[in-house]
Amino acid sequence: MRKPCCDKEGTNKGAWSKQEDQKLIDYIRIHGEGCWRSLPKAAGLDRCGKSCRLRWINYLRPDIKRGNFGQDEEDLIIKLHALLGNRWSLIAGRLPGRTDNEVKNYWNSHIRRKLISMGIDPNNHRLNQIPPIPFSQPKCVSPAATSSHESMNNNESSKPLIKPFANTTTADRVSDTTSGFEDEISGSLDLNLDLTIAVPSASSLTLVQEKLQINSKSIVTKEVTISEQAPTLVLFR
DNA sequence: AAATCGGCCAACCGCCACCAC
DNA sequence: AGTGGTGGCGGTTGGCCGATT
């Protein structure tokens, strides 16, 4: 049987009080982010270490940028999600001052719905094939159908525009079928992503080219070729 | 004015990777 | 090589609040 991450007996749960916040801030200000497990006791908090870490990272850290996401941030999230899937921490890492939790929430509450209303399956960033409901979204050349987000299962012929890592279960989180490519992403500290999608020309092929500059050293180029009459989608500038 | 609904978001839960021993 | 502890991550939940009926 799995041991709980910490002794939950006698620890507070739920919303943090101002006093608790202040204790955590004061402690980290003095001692820095050390061992989360021992931090609560040392800081005089009746909280699980994980809870402290989460509170600090998602809310109390001084460099957190709060408030609405800008259009550029939204665009970037969409780009990165197409490339990385639900790797919220990686995506958040490219958005200064944003946390993975914030990005995840924003995706689920805003972007996801927006893409769906544009007829784009948020799981694989493909257009659905039902006629569009007009939506004023300048990033999309050809707005398309509205369909439920379950559409990821509804069309076998619909190959992903970009092989996403989204829609993965916890179990296959580690075993995505994208060779070592993804590992290079995760392992990189200074990852410079430059994603371009070439709009199909006369041919019915869509070329997706991803360039990854890792630590300013190696460049990995990955090309994905998608065929057939997949509707043209330009999500990215 | 009250009840209901739906969206947002902070926080929790469980799993996994990594590291030290 | 195996094991246990810890941190980190993504999915999910639940409470709050504004909008709608």
From TrEMBL:
InterPro entries reported in the protein's UniProt record: Homeodomain-like_sf, Myb_dom, Myb_TF_plants, SANT/Myb
PROSITE patterns assigned to the protein according to its UniProt record, in alphabetical order: HTH_MYB (PS51294), MYB_LIKE (PS50090)
This protein's GO CC annotations: nucleus
Positions with biased composition (Low complexity): 147-158
Positions of the Myb-like domain: 8-60, 61-111
CDD domains in the record: SANT
A GO MF term: DNA binding
Superkingdom of origin: Eukaryota
Subcellular location: Nucleus
Listed PANTHER family: TRANSCRIPTION FACTOR MYB8-RELATED-RELATED (PTHR47999), TRANSCRIPTION REPRESSOR MYB4-LIKE (PTHR47999:SF34)
UniProt name for this protein: Uncharacterized protein
UniProt organism field: Lithocarpus litseifolius
